[in-house]
Design the sequence.
């Protein structure tokens, strides 16, 4: 008799546990479906869920302190022609790190057209080259200056 009562209690406890687990699963599932259908209630912002950078969703062409925020390029006449034609294929950092004169910028563009499938820039060609020559001309210092006032020491074995 004692064994039957013990088994009945155990069965009731297991039944309650299983019903609780199923209920929790159903509620969690419904909540997940609701959040998928209405992401504005999620703790993660809706811009981040869509893969957008919150800094650039307001205005992707925003300029701060003379710098185009999205690309890092200097503000100036021809900036948007460079952004629209150059950053489709490569990062603006590639433009920023290269500093050339008019002849070299022209030959680089020609090389990209011949080997990298760059389209004909048409009227934008001159606008782009003028921008690049103005804001990214050659620099006299190609490398950083040597270290000065350094106290060197000998490594011991």
Sequence:
């Amino acid at each position: 008799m004692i064994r039957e009562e013990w088994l009945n209690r155990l069965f009731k406890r297991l039944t309650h546990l299983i019903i609780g687990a199923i209920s929790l699963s159903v509620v969690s599932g419904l909540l997940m479906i609701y959040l998928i259908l209405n992401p504005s209630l999620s703790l993660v912002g809706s811009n981040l869920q869509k893969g957008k950078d919150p800094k650039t969703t307001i205005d992707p062409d925003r300029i701060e302190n003379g710098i185009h925020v999205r690309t890092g390029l200097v503000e100036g006449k021809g900036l948007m022609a460079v952004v629209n034609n150059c950053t489709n294929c490569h990062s603006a950092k590639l433009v920023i790190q290269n500093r050339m004169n008019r002849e070299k910028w022209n030959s680089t563009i020609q090389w990209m057209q011949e080997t990298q499938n760059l389209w004909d820039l048409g009227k934008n060609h001159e606008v782009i080259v003028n921008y690049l020559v103005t804001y990214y001309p050659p620099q006299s210092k190609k490398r950083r200056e040597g270290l000065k006032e350094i106290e060197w020491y000998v490594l011991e074995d």
In short: Residues 39 and 46 are 6 Å apart (CA to CA). The longest strand covers residues 63-64. The radius of gyration is 32 Å.
